[in-house]
Write a structure and sequence with these properties.
The protein is an alpha+beta fold and about 450 residues long. It has 18 helices and 15 strands. The protein folds into four domains: about 180 residues, Nucleotidyltransferase, domain 5; about 90 residues, 3-Layer(aba) Sandwich (GIY-YIG endonuclease); about 100 residues, no CATH class; about 70 residues, no CATH class. A hairpin with a 2-residue loop joins β13 and β14.
């Protein structure tokens, strides 16, 4: 009925590391009925720190069977059994991955003694196997070896079954129900709330504070992938998660723009490292008092006349230097430093001498405008027409005077004949410099979108 399993491995990554030791203890709910233990040759070196922890050395596993040699035994022993382990995901994922490398799909129902312990014997200072066994008087022989830890887990499991059977609240509930944590219930409710449509979603903590913002063409599926992830970041989000909210956009481009805007407005805790500063520097342009076009790298959300967005200063400077060489631009007019002397590029014949009074502003601007034109929108004022939030609705994104001017919606049966009519339907929005790059990239990836010119 139950296969209580413990493993030792070469490390903590199931996709890369391998099993070195496995113990399987079959249990019928009353007593142990069969055991199987073996070292396994992982076919790779065991790190020194792992040997220090487990006592398992490369020499010990050199003559041990490889996983494929015991795979059939594991399948036979666990067939029809519930896979039980302390922090079951760790052991189960490693076993699944070992079978996957052999081209076999291993699947069993799982039961976690950590989750059971939290529910049946609450308020313990620690639920690690060592600490919990110490608190319950369970002696672990051969700690951090598979058989020793599996035996301890079996004794813990028997205690948990005893507590369940004597508890007035839990005795009639099956183990699968008890195996679900409150987090599982929250995750289930959240998935039920979300639609499988395009939009922006907000993950909320118990204070209704936004802790993460994301966008997707399929919100429910994307959120499910978040809640199923085992990464450290995902686990932090899950541990704080209590509720969810969402805004349907219909258009993926609107979702991209709204997500970026909302992250800046709310600064969610778990978006900061990944996205808050995804674009920190911008290539911008302006005309000086003589009408000469200047380029510079700007930072901050107030940057104007942006052409390209960058994630850091070095990337921005590298790109600017590349464009300076490509268009033969003057260093004095492409940095924040304005020298009265001729620039270095003029001295090495890469600048035609605007800085030395040897080139006219018109001639210089012809080259400078080519750079600008290659990154600007073809039209200064236009609307990108896209799908709406329902089959009867359309959406639009406006570009006004060459920059993002907001978005809005209208019904299919409404007569919209001009750019000015769309401007009247724009929803409240916040302009941010990287909107230019987001829109340019989306248009490049979706060239068949309908464009309405002003």
């Amino acid at each position: 009925m139950f296969a209580i399993i413990d493993i030792e491995t070469t490390g903590g990554n199931a996709a890369y590391d391998r099993i070195t030791d496995i113990s399987i203890i079959l249990h019928d709910g009353l007593a142990i009925t069969e055991t199987f233990n073996t070292l396994i040759n992982p076919e790779r070196k065991i790190p020194y720190y792992i040997t220090q922890l487990t006592g398992i050395s490369n020499e010990m596993v050199a003559e041990a069977p490889k996983f494929f040699e015991i795979a059939k035994k594991i399948i036979d022993l666990t067939e029809g059994m519930i896979f039980v382990a302390h922090n079951v995901s760790f052991d189960y994922n490693f076993v699944v991955q070992e079978f996957k490398s052999l081209g076999y799909t291993y699947k069993r129902d799982k039961l976690c003694t950590v989750k059971l312990s939290r529910k049946l014997i609450p308020n313990k200072p620690s639920y690690s196997l060592g600490k919990l066994c110490e608190q319950l008087g369970i002696k672990i022989e051969d700690r951090h070896r598979a058989h020793g830890d599996a035996l301890a887990t079996a004794k813990l499991f028997e205690i948990l079954l005893s507590v369940k059977n004597e508890h007035s609240l839990f005795q009639k509930q099956d183990l699968n129900y008890l195996n679900k944590s409150s987090i599982d219930d929250i995750k289930t409710n959240i998935i039920k709330k979300l639609p499988e449509e395009t939009g922006v979603y907000y993950l909320l903590d118990k204070s209704n504070r936004i802790i993460y913002i994301g966008k997707s063409k399929q919100i429910r599926q994307r959120a499910f992938s978040h809640l199923s992830s085992k990464t450290q970041k995902a686990q932090k989000i899950i541990n704080s998660l209590c509720d969810v909210d969402f805004i349907l956009t219909g258009s993926e481009l609107i979702a991209l723009l709204l997500e970026s805007q909302e992250i800046k407005n709310h600064l969610p805790e778990h978006n900061r490292a990944q996205k808050q500063h995804i674009y920190t520097h911008f290539l911008t342009w302006h005309e000086d008092e003589r009408g000469l076009i200047n380029y510079t790298i700007s930072n901050g959300s107030n940057a104007q006349n942006t052409l390209i967005s960058f994630s850091n200063d070095n990337t921005a400077k590298e790109k600017l230097n590349e464009l300076i060489d490509q268009h033969e631009l003057c260093l004095n007019h492409t940095t924040n430093q304005h020298n009265e002397e001729a620039c270095f590029n003029y001295q090495i014949k890469k600048c035609k001498g605007i800085c030395a009074g040897l080139e006219s502003i018109d001639d210089y601007n012809k080259r400078a405008r080519k750079l600008k034109a290659s990154y600007e929108f073809e039209n200064k004022n236009f609307a990108i027409m896209d799908q709406g939030r329902s089959e009867t609705e359309n959406s639009f994104i406006l570009i006004i005077d060459g920059k993002y001017g907001g978005y809005g919606y209208f019904e299919n049966d409404e007569s919209i004949n001009s750019f000015d009519e769309l401007k009247e339907r724009v929803q409240d929005f916040t302009y941010f410099p990287e909107s230019h790059s987001i829109i340019k990239q989306y248009l490049k990836a979706n060239p068949r979108l309908k464009i309405l010119k002003s």
